[in-house]
Design goal:
The radius of gyration is 13 Å and the shape is globular. 6% of the residues lie in helices and 40% in strands. The strands form 2 sheets. A 7-stranded mixed beta sheet has the order 6-5-8-3-2-1-9, with no helix packed on it. A two-stranded antiparallel sheet has the order 4-7. It has a single domain, classed as Jelly Rolls. The N and C termini lie close together (5 Å). The chain is built from 1 helix and 9 strands, in the order E-E-H-E-E-E-E-E-E-E. The relative contact order is 0.29. The chain has 108 residues and is mainly beta.
Amino acid sequence: MKLKIHNQTLDIKKATDFKTRLLGFMGQEKISTGILFPNCKSIHTFFMKEEIDVIGLDDNNQVIYIYRNVPKNKIVKISSEQKKTSILELPKNTSKSLVIGSVIKFLE
């Protein structure tokens, strides 16, 4: 899956298995891709080597939360009354063009 954002196209991995959901970007340097965590309301940045942007999405892929440059050793929770939310992790400073209410369109 791909995402075109801020004049660049990023590969997006869908975290559907336990290992991918657990590890995410842990231990990685120079992050240049994204990870989509479907049906997710919180993530952590423990054991990460660099900051990331964290985007909360509703079930229509509309942006409901944006956390930019989240440092390591943090927990981010998306507090939403919606039952189906997802989290998109992106390289730091990638979400500059996004605002609350933007709709994310993934490319296949």
